[in-house]
Amino acid sequence: MTPWLTIVGVSLDGTTSFSKRAEIAIQSAVVIVGSTRLLDLLDISHDRRFVWPSPFSLGITWLKSMAGQPVVVLATGDPMHYGVGSTLTSAFKSEEYTVLPAPSSLSLAAARMGWALQDSICLSLHGRPLEKLHTVLAPNAQLLILTRDGSSPAKIIRLLCQTMYSESFVSVLENLGGLNETRYDLRATNTEIRDFAALNIVAVKCVLSKDAAYLPTVPGLPDCAFQHDGQLTKREIRSITIAALTPKPNERLWDVGAGCGSVAIEWLRCTPNSKAIAFEHDDKRATIVRNNSLNLNVPHLEIVTESVPDSLQLYPLPDAIFIGGACSNRQVLETCWMTLRSGGRLVANAVTIEGQAVLSEWHKKLGGELINIALSYVKTIGRFRGLQPALAVMQLRLIKP
What we know:
Layout: E1 5-10, H1 20-28, E2 31-34, H2 36-39, E3 49-51, H3 56-65, E4 71-76, H4 85-91, E5 97-100, H5 105-113, E6 121-124, E7 142-146, H6 152-162, E8 169-174, E9 182-187, E10 200-205, H7 235-245, E11 252-256, H8 262-270, E12 275-279, H9 283-295, E13 302-304, E14 320-323, H10 330-339, E15 345-350, H11 353-366, E16 369-373, E17 376-381, E18 384-389, E19 393-399
Parallel strand pairs: 1-4, 1-5, 2-3, 2-4, 6-7, 11-12, 11-14, 12-13, 14-15
Antiparallel strand pairs: 7-10, 8-9, 8-10, 15-19, 16-19, 17-18
C-alpha cells in the first residue's frame, strides 16, 4: 500500500527548509492541513487549504474520511518530538503515512547551547503544569524546556529561585531557526525579567544554591524531611518497603492509609513518569501529605480523602499497593487484592498484634513472603550507650497471579 498521508515538519524559516520529498508531497496533495500560520507559508489555492479544527479529534475524523487520497499535514519542527506526529501515527496504520521531519526546536536549542542532546533533559510545558520541572531539577542538570508562551521564562526563573536553584544559568532562545532569532543569557537571580516572544525555548544549567541541601532520589530520605504527626514509615523501614514494591517507570502506586505520604512520595521521586495516589481520610493528615509532596518536589501526587475501601474502585487501577495504616482491616485487604492487576505487587506493614495476625492469616492463605523487620537505635544510658529495640514491623509481600 502506498502511503497517502504525509506529515511534513516545518521550520520557522518556512518553505526553505523543505526537502525534495516534502515539496513533491505538497505539490501532489489534494488537501494540505495545518494551522493558519503554517498554511500561510505556502502559495496554495484556497480550496486546497484545510485549517485544523477544534477539538483536535474532529481533524482525525476528517482525515480518516480522506483515506486513499494524497493529503499533507503540516506540523512545526519534528512532528514526532512533542508534536502532532505521534497522535496521527497512532490513529493510522504504518503503511498509510510517511513522516518527513524538520529539525525540532529542542535540537536547535541544543545546537545553540553547544550541549549534547543525549545529555540534556528535554521537556515540554505545553498543556503540562509548571510544577513538572520539580521532577527534573538536580545539580548540574542541563534542561531544555519547550515553553507555553512568552510569560513562561519568568515563571521558570521564579520556580528556580523557590527551589534552591537560584544560582542557575538561564538562556532564553527566541524564534529558533527564524530570521529574528535571539538569545538572552542571565542568572536566575535576575529580578528584571520581561516577557519574551511566544516561540521560545528556555535552557537551564542547574546550579544548587550555596548551603542548600540536595535530597537524593534514592529511597531513604531522613525522617526530618517529612512533616508528620507521628504517623510516619521510618527511614529504614521505608527503604525496605520501596524495594519490596519494586517500582518501575510509568507505574501507579496506591498508598492506602498514607499517614504523611512518605512511601508514595519516595515512590514518585525514584521512578520517572510514575504516578501515585495517597488514600488518607484524615483531613489534617491529608494536608500534611500535600505539604510534603510540594516540599519534596512531587506536586503531582494525587490525594484522596474519601474513606476506604469504598472509594478504591473509583480510581485508576494500580501496579503496586502499599498498605501501612489499614492492614488490620480485612475488607481493605480484600478490596486491594481484588483490584490489583495480574503481576501487581502488594506490600503491607503491621506493628500491632491485630494487624500482624491478619497478615499471618493472609500469608497462610495466599503465600508470598512474610518477614519480620527488627531495628535497634543507640540510646544513652547514663554514662554509656545501648541499643534500644524499636517496635518490630511484620511485612507481607504478595504478587498477584
